[in-house]
Amino acid sequence: MGISHEELQLAARNHGMPLEALRWDVTPIGLHYLLTHYDIPSVDERAWRLSVDGLVGSAQSFSLDDLRALPGHEVVSTMECAGNGRARLTPRPVSQPWLQEAVGTGRWRGVRLRDVLERAAPADGAVEVLFTGLDRGVEGGEHQAYQRSLPLAVAQDGDVLLAYELNGAPLPPQHGFPLRLLVPGWYGMTNVKWLAAITLVDAPFGGYQQTQGYRFRITEDDEGVPIRLMLPRALMLPPGVPEFMTRARTLEAGTHALEGRAWSGQAAIDAVEVSVDGGAKWAAAALEPERLGRWAWRHWTYRWAAAPGEYELACRARDAAGNVQPLAPEWNVGGYANNAVQRISVGVV
Amino acid sequence: MGISHEELQLAARNHGMPLEALRWDVTPIGLHYLLTHYDIPSVDERAWRLSVDGLVGSAQSFSLDDLRALPGHEVVSTMECAGNGRARLTPRPVSQPWLQEAVGTGRWRGVRLRDVLERAAPADGAVEVLFTGLDRGVEGGEHQAYQRSLPLAVAQDGDVLLAYELNGAPLPPQHGFPLRLLVPGWYGMTNVKWLAAITLVDAPFGGYQQTQGYRFRITEDDEGVPIRLMLPRALMLPPGVPEFMTRARTLEAGTHALEGRAWSGQAAIDAVEVSVDGGAKWAAAALEPERLGRWAWRHWTYRWAAAPGEYELACRARDAAGNVQPLAPEWNVGGYANNAVQRISVGVV
Question: pTM of this prediction?
Answer without folding.
Answer: 0.97
